[in-house]
Amino acid sequence: MRRLVLSLTLVVAASPPVRAQTETADLLRQAQQLYERLEIERALPLLRQVVSPSWSHEVTKEQRVQVYTYLAASLALVGARDSALLYFHAAIERDPFTDLDAQRFTPAQLALFHQARRLAFGVAVRPVAAARIDPRTERVTFAVVTTHAASLRVELRPVDGQAGTLLFHGVNDGVREVPWDGLLPDGQLAAPGRYQLAVLGRSQLLDRSDSARVYFTLARETPPLEDSVPELRLADLLPERLQPSAGRHDLLKGLGIATGALALSSIAVNGDLPHGGRVLAIAVAGAGAFAGVTAFLSARQARDIPANIEENSRRRAARAAANAGVARRNAEKIAQTVLVIAPAAGTGP
């Protein structure tokens, strides 16, 4: 029951604005129909009612611009040129994109409208539309306008304070579409984040300047990238040089053989070995000592192991080739990056 009461409360609370907008839209539609049938005397009171201070219903910015435009067009048809010019001026000030279709309005109406554009100066930029852009073949397009000839500057700025990108700087009159390739001044693809499109204009007819800005967010969509092969660890490589300990080991082994042989020779002195065996033991001792000393000296003089060095070089080259392939494939994927544009809150001068 409480949920039902809450729902009814929300509906009732939301109803007045909806009804207010509907009331305004209905009256404006009636006035437009009367205008199209050239029943100007009946259309004018309805249009004036919408912009009257006594009108208690909500009027959106777009509806007010429409009312001012139709009021001006109606007054131009009945010969009230000054009033028509005033309302055209009001419509243009509220929305510099306001324009008249030359196929639907008379030359007199168009002349007054263009006069109003010269008297009212303003710049504007349309809200950024959601889009997916491939920067290799497509461009983001921003629509900007000056009500008459003016020096115009259009700049794209990351809101984090980085350097902006100048998209246009020159003379402009009317609506202009400004393209952007998705690159920043350093030539790199724009980073994800929030951006501001700032427009600044200075009239060439009047001593006036005006500005406008809109915001949007930018995201990137890139295929998943591969990880590079990590650095080879010490355990992944073979030893490339002999350690001094290896020479010492061989020396000790040789000396051990020599010691054993000499022990045999001492036994021979005591008569346990024949004379020939004693000579042989001494020879073996000498050979063992010589071999140990030779191995020790060799280990100190020639420490490189060519076969291991060659194998390690092959392993390093294989890693480098694998990483080069990863870098090439990642570069191809990055080149396929798509920019995702979405409007963001924050508009105004």
SSE arrangement:
Blueprint: H1 2-36, H2 40-50, H3 61-77, H4 81-94, H5 107-119, E1 123-125, E2 131-133, E3 140-158, E4 165-180, E5 193-203, E6 209-221, H6 244-269, H7 275-301, H8 306-334, E7 338-348
Antiparallel strand pairs: 1-3, 2-7, 3-4, 3-5, 5-6, 6-7
Description of the structure:
With 349 residues, this protein is of the alpha+beta class. It has three domains: 15-119, Serine Threonine Protein Phosphatase 5, Tetratricopeptide repeat, CATH 1.25.40; 123-225 and 338-348, Immunoglobulin-like (Sandwich), CATH 2.60.40; 234-334. 49% of the residues lie in helices and 22% in strands. It has eight helices and seven strands, in the order αααααββββββαααβ. Strands 1, 2, 3, 4, 5, 6 and 7 form a seven-stranded antiparallel sheet that branches. A hairpin with a 6-residue loop joins strand 3 (140-158) and strand 4 (165-180). It is rod-shaped.
Mean of pLDDT: 82
Estimated structural class = alpha+beta
Roughly what fraction of the amino acids lie in strands? 15-25%
Examine the coordinates and then state which fold CATH places here, giving the name of the CATH topology of the largest domain. Answer: Immunoglobulin-like
Name some characteristics of this structure:
Immunoglobulin-like; 7 strands; seven-stranded antiparallel sheet; alpha+beta; Serine Threonine Protein Phosphatase 5, Tetratricopeptide repeat; 3 domains
Tell me briefly what this model is:
The chain has 349 residues and is an alpha+beta fold. Helices cover 49% and strands 22% of the residues.
